[in-house]
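TL;DR need structure tokens for one chain.
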Amino acid sequence: MRVEQLEYVVAVTRHGSLRRASESVHLSQPALSEAITRLESELGVVLLDRRRSGARISREGLELLPHLEAVLESVARLREAAGDRTQANRVLRLGTVGTATSTLLTPALRDLSAEHPDTRVEVVNTRQDPIDAGLLDGSLDLGLVNVLEGDDPPAGLYDVPLLAGPTVAVLPHDHPLAGRASVDVADLRAEPFVAMREGYLMHRLAVRLFGDTWPRVLTSTDGAELGKAMVADGAGLTVLPAFSVAGDPLERAGVIIHRPVTGLDTTVSLALRMRRSPRVAPHVRHLRDALTARARAVTGPPG
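>> reply
TL;DR here they are.
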């Protein structure tokens, strides 16, 4: 058994196919598949489900995945202690719903790069359900998700609170409602609305807000960043957590503004979602620490 064989199994798990895994480890696909086959023979376990549509980790492989990762983490710590810099091309995969990218994620990535320049982060923008699935099957290392009070992570995952704040209306700076101290639901219903797609927490919150009487929805989009850009371009208004708008480049430039929504006192939290594991890989821990430190710098620890 070689360490590289364990790395190959984890690579297939993360990338979802032999082809993409072989590209990530710079090995031909037949050679990677053969190396995993030899490991399967040695362990007496089928680690991958190989199908025409691609290869995925098997149920038995998923059960062994924490042990594989624990071995690789131990090897990484050994190399780190020995001053081995051969881990320079580690890729950490972070799934995010796209909230607080400018105010939290981007600054945290800058901090991480300054402190640990050998760690590369791949940011995957998607909905919450795929993030949870990716964390559970090992294809993602960390997740950034929005939660409401009472929301619980799936079994096997846990949340680290980062930011919390009210829900606000987002408007172009020159909109007629911009001169008001706040807007109400009737104001929002009378305007075109930029909705988040189903599967995002802000879509669920909009359902609560509007009930059976929605504004005219001109477009629906994935995530807060696109939503803010569409508001800036005049596509309509939207609602987002305040922490997603305050300090955003579009807000700093005076292109968009936000206003409280009268009668809406729902708090949205941004959480770092992680897989329960007896050990956290060093590069995962580094990004976790960068995100939590940046969150404390923005608003202090969430209450």
